[in-house]
Write a structure and sequence with these properties.
alpha/beta, six-stranded parallel β-sheet, Rossmann fold, 17 strands, 479 residues, 18 helices, 2 domains
Amino acid sequence: MVGYTSDALKVVLVNPPSPPEFRVSRGLMGGFGMAVNPELLYPPIELAHVAGALLEDGHDVAIIDGDALGVDLDGALARVKAEAPALVVLDSSSTSLDQDLELAGRVREATGALTGMLGSQVTFTPDEIFSGGRIDFVVRGEPEHTVQEVAARAARGEALDGTPGITRRSEDGEVVHEEERAKISDLDALPLPARQLLNNAAYRFPGVDGAITTVKSSRGCPLNCSFCGYTLAQGLRFRFRSPAHVLRELEDLYFNHGIRHVVFRDPIFTTRKDRVADICDGIVAAGMTELEWQCETAVKTLDRELLEKMARAGCKHISLGVESGNDEIQKKHCGNKLSDLDKAHEVFRACRDVGIETRAFCMIGFPEETPAMADETLALVDSLDPDQVQFCAVTAYPGTPLHEMLRGTREFDYASMTGFQALEGNEHMSAAAIEAKIREGYRRFYRRPKRVFRELRDPRRLAGRLARYMTLFRRRAAV
């Protein structure tokens, strides 16, 4: 573990309230965030990881989660002021950036604290964040070690000059990008996230009874999809925590915090099948018989034997990246996740056989996509027959290969990066046509007779999905 010896500092980590139009989950889309079902509330696990590192260095740390507290900007500001912090670090997302910056500026003015922001949006557009003098620094990339060093320097009364992994404004007003900080190679050396600083009972997932939490058991993804923010934040190299370290966290949340529902937030959870098998064996051996969990992964990293083991260990749901039913788009933009359609059908069948629900992640609006190509995606979803489906508008988040491909040809409105709004059309479909195709996809999927029958068996979950659908295309009002 990298440790920074310093005097204790009062540090407040802030997950700002969501905009009034919709709930934002800032950890999704590789830290760019997206609009989500209003019934979904994930813990700010990135901040909990940072808090764990700061606590290990002896600092006095508080986490203020605006959504879990049910407060607006004024309420969040009052909570921060009450802590009398010397250092404040706020999380951010693309679609809530204006509001996040407003809160940061008000915090900085009211407390005089050294104020920074983290998240993928500010990592890849740091120059734009400093207008208005609302923050002192941006944390770029993985935050744990960078925030540790910032806190240590602040506690010693030192300037931030030369701190790897930050962008700052110099005294003469110049924006200075300090050198990159290397990715954390030994994830087992990190302390567990500081869940004791969270109100764990507040976090929930639609259709799940009881509190939920999230776990990041690995970082990085080798698939390098053109639209994906995870590779930006975490890199292309797959870095993983050992099964023993993951089980230590699961046992902590299960036996110490009483949490029974876990969402693994790894980009491709089953990249190493042997590691997942060992985690499953450990769950069973530790007697965590009531643990229920879900994950995200790719078809190509699953097989029936592993799925059977996962089901025995409490896996109830898997979200699978389908993205597109068009072969050209799969190869160019989607890491060729579905190179073997027979295997894809077998994986979805195997999930049904072992009792694991599935969700297909799909995207509409790639640069060269025609309506006919989009229809291939809708047809593929029909044939795979997942339990749920999610259609997103292709979004060129800053720093992604897709953004680099389109830069200079389009204007990017960060407030519209909800994950569902089409920012602009392409040469074949307008933005309105892309959003219409997404609506068509949902109608086509959920109106099938067998799907209607399944949905009516759980009216509460159906109501939650309808509530989410009603918020998908809401536009942000200017702050």
